[in-house]
Amino acid sequence: MVPASFPGWNRRIVPWLAAGAATVLVVATFHPGYMSLDSIDQLSQARAGVFSDWHPPAMAWLWRQIDRVFPGPGGMLLIQNLCFSTALALVFGTLFPPLPAGILVLGVVMLPPVFGLLSTIWKDVELGATALMAFALLLRYSVTRSRWHLAASVIPIFWTCAVRQNGAAAIAPMTAWAAWLLRDALPWRTAPLSRWLSASLGFLACVAFFLLGTGWNSLLASTRLHPEQALYLHDLTAVSLARNEDLLPDYLRNDPSVATLDELRQIFRHDSAAPLLWNSKRHLRFSQNEQHLADLRKRWQTAILHNPGAYLRHRLELTRHLLSLGTENPENVFFEATPRPSRLTAMATRVLRSTASTLLFSGWLYLLMAGGALFIGRMRRIPTEWFLPMVVLATSGLFYSLPYAVLAPAVAFRYLWWTAVASLLCLLFAFAPRKPAASPRNGGESAPAGLGGSSPLAPS
Description:
Elements: H1 6-12, H2 14-30, H3 37-48, E1 51-52, H4 57-67, H5 74-95, H6 98-110, H7 112-117, H8 123-144, H9 147-163, H10 167-181, H11 193-220, E2 221-223, H12 228-243, H13 250-253, H14 261-267, H15 274-277, H16 290-306, H17 308-323, H18 343-355, H19 363-379, H20 384-401, H21 404-407, H22 417-430
Parallel strand pairs: 1-2
């Protein structure tokens, strides 16, 4: 005999079935997964067991463990897609009835900016997947008050901080939100002090996760390549060309193999340091000499302090390219041609390439989308318990993108992937049902979020 509650339970698995189908679709389309030069470098480090600081070693360390079971990029492709789709199921299963939630899971995954980048093993994509999982678990905690959801969120929060240097910026709004949710457990919850205390706890938690991620990466990295040199050299060259004066350190100016200022002018690009470092016969070079590094850092700092106008114009130009403001879209996705692509792969590649130059891959669109979503949320008078997660998503995406304006030595759409995903979800949040459906156990059709009951996100 089938239990009376079975039909409701059956419907509530729809988002999870959709997550499984989305994972299978991406893996089947792109298996074993695309790899850029960065990805290949990380896989090489994973197999050698020797990690450098060129990339945060956390991802290579994880890849080393997975590679032992699933050699090559296929294992990482499966893990990052499973994490991303599962997180979508958690979010949409909390906001919408089961069938719409399942449709939205598939719909978001199949959007070209999402689908295209899920094909590639990148730390940017892994960060997006883990940041979304952290948000999804905190959203579930806000609804269920289950300590398991709160405890489980610690893992993706830590990993987001570990896998990319600016991951902590994406996590900051989430730790603040978690502290706000925990304020009821404080003895001063009715006093103004509780707000300041919860904000302080959220900030301290973010700092703690950042330090833990940075510390672990430092312990893993046995080879120091000092990748920050790319930023210093790019900025120094921009200021030098603006002033028509060579401001590079002596160890570069006195090296006959290094390009002259006139040669640098021919290859310089505001949107990428690569031509200065790798793509020409005579270029700038990296150094592992501590004195050289100290001299380079000092020159960079001095150039910024004495030439703020030239420096800001350069960084604003780079940011303009990153956001595609009046420029062509930056390099979008890494489509490595395969000798014999399947029909599914060939069809997906054609669709993705046809959309690569459209607004879908323009960073400014997603910043505008996040702001528009918050405006719609206020216009719909969404209650605080529901509006607050929207603010968390919007600010997480914004905070994550901000460091690139001053720290990025190049531009690529993947740098803004989490910003794009967070903005898309924020917009969908704004149109989520205002009131939960009745629980099946109470005679209604279905419960929102698969919770089987009312939701504290609903308006009071």
